Amino acid sequence: MRRSLLSSVLLFRVFFAQFFASESVTSDIQLRSVIIWILAFLVTPGFMISLQLVTRYIFAAIRGPSAVEPLTATLGFMFIIYSALAAGLVAVFLWDGLMFSRRDAMVLGPLPVHGVALIVAKVCALGALLLATTTCANLFGTLLFPFVASSAKGLVGVAQHMVAHATATVAAGVFVFSVVVIVRGLVLFVPGAGLSAVLGATLQLAFLGGVFASVLVIPAAISAADPAAQVMGDGWLPTAWYLGLYESMRGHHTVGVDVMAGRALAATASAVALAILVSVAGFWRQMQLALGPDSNLGLRRLGRIRWFAHRIVGHESTAHAALDFFLLTLSRNRALHTIITMNAALAIPVVAAAIWRSGIDPAALARPRTIILWIPLVIAFWLVIGFRAAFFVPSELPAAWTFEANAPRTSYTYGDASRAAMLSLVLPPILAISLAITGMLLGWRFAVWHTVYVAAVCGLLIEIVLLTITHVPFTQAYEPGHAKLKSHWPLYLFAMYACAYWPVQLELRLLRHPSRMVAAIGFFVGLTIGLGIWRRRHHHWSLRPGELDEAEPTEASSIFTRSSRIVQSWPQR
Predict the structure, then answer these.
(1) Any domain includes 441
(2) What is the pLDDT at residue 457?
(3) Spatial CA neighbour of 413 closest among 343, 294, 478, 318
(4) 129 and 183 in one domain?
(5) pTM (2 decimals)?
């Protein structure tokens, strides 16, 4: 019994440490700095919003309790949404760590450790992570907001409100976190890794965009609407359940509120129990998969993306080999997915804030407007910036030896391979978004014209971004102070307007002149080709001699070796 307990404690520490481990940082200090920034981001909204509400409650108190209580319910609804989004955000960014991995099964399976100890340690690690997340997201809201909202009720009212706030917000976070764990566990039973990667990236984008939007848009929406009453009207929304729990624990007992509170408690308990069961099933599933070959690695899962990228890159053998290396690295490294998703998610609050500021008028949405036409370009800009940031992550430092031994040190083909990789990964989703949005709102004929225009602008944007890169992606250590979004945000904001707002303004001026529209598209395409020619002649990418690592080449770098040797041997056969 003592040995099993010690094993569980040790495994708990290992599993919990895995949540904060990364192969894409050069030191523990850098990783701790990132964690501190994340915690500060989660803590700040509750603190700032609580302080900003003091004057608002003073004016509401003058009008009487009839104005204070709806405002408190609305703000409680906002805190519940933020807690749920924050918990879901942490869960999806630790997507692979939520379940037992294949490596865990291969390493721990042969050891004389009981399966119960492994499962208990993993569940406790998930619980500790959830506790840390909900504490950071709700700490200041729980401590400060009840004093602001219920100070007129005395210390007993403040304490009751504090308990209600903590219970409802934490329960909402637990529910969403458990649902994400359930989804991640069920994905294990689907053959292949494609669904897991796509679903993980999609959920990361959705939750990160939701957190940004909640911080920027929801406070402004409070002054114009009372969403709490509308939410309570639909009893089948999870937000209504936890808002009912919030109001019930504050002492507002009605039949509808108590029913919602009961549903919230039942849903939370059921989600936690099902998450534990899925974790148990996931452990045994990984134990089975560990006995067979890993079919998730390699270039087979890239499918049509790789085929399309190879059609773009041309016939240069080094470019084909480098392209396979870039695509494989992007597909297998979860840290790169996180960086790309974090940058792409910045488009969501930008678009949401712009739509909110201009007003949501269904009749106006049926006419060509900047607020609609620039959406795919905003997403494309931040997605391309995300890929550029990912190119600077030292995720494959040992590959520098492979390039040194099998490829020229300086070559324009690395730029061609990077362009093909970005085009194959950026253009399909952007064109689909453009067709879907403009087609449903403005008609499919206009959608085709706008999508072609967006494709031309995206090609030019990618070519411009490639001019800012001078090294082979993924093979260079971090440069201090390079590409810091938090310090260079005015430059990024100006670039976003230059790449998204101004081209749409030009498009709106040319809508009634098809010939001029064609000329504008041709101008963008010609400028892209011209920059590409200049880049190939004067902007050669190179290996930096100080970046060679003594470690053994990884699987992604060996892909380059095999591809380059195969392609180079073609003329001899």
Answers:
(1) yes
(2) 94
(3) 318
(4) yes
(5) 0.69
Count of alpha carbons within 13 Å of 55, Cβ hemisphere only? 1
Say how many domains are in the chain. Answer: 2
62 and 12 both lie in a single domain: yes
Mean per-residue pLDDT pooled into runs of 10, the chain (573 residues): 68 76 55 64 71 66 66 82 86 77 70 74 84 83 81 82 90 91 83 67 78 64 50 67 87 79 90 88 70 50 78 83 86 78 82 72 71 90 90 77 76 88 91 89 87 93 90 74 61 87 89 86 92 84 55 48 48 39
Structure-block tokens of residue 440: 């449903």
Q: Do residue 197 and residue 333 come from a single domain? A: no
Least Cα distance to 429 among 394, 383, 463, 398 occurs for 383
DSSP run (H or E) holding 542: strand 541-542
Report pLDDT for 296: 47
- Please state, in angstroms and as integers, the Cα–Cα distance from residue 79 to each residue in 132, 215, 267, 477, 563, following that order: 17, 10, 19, 40, 53
- Let me know whether 367 and 251 are in one domain: no
Which residue, among 94, 231, 90, 95, has the nearest Cα to 168 in the 3D structure? 231
What six digits make up the tokens of 303? 């499918």
Query: E-strand spans in 293-417?
Result: 410-411
Looking at the structure, do residues 282 and 402 belong to the same domain, yes or no? no
400 shares a domain with 281: no
* Beta-sheet pairing, 541-542 with 410-411: antiparallel
Q: Which tens digit of pLDDT belongs to each residue from 536-555?
A: 888 777 765 444 444 444 54
Q: Is residue 10 part of a domain?
A: yes
Q: Say if residues 248 and 156 touch (Cβ distance below 8 Å).
A: no
Residues 539 and 458 in one domain: yes
Residue 307: inside a domain, yes or no? no
Q: Which two three-digit tokens encode residue 144?
A: 């400060």
Q: What is the DSSP letter of 477?
A: P
* Domain membership of residue 468 as a residue range: 316-572
- Assess whether 217 and 327 both reside in one domain: no
User: Would you give the distance in Å from CA 482 to the centre of its chain?
Assistant: 21
* Intra-chain end-to-end CA distance of the chain, in Å: 66
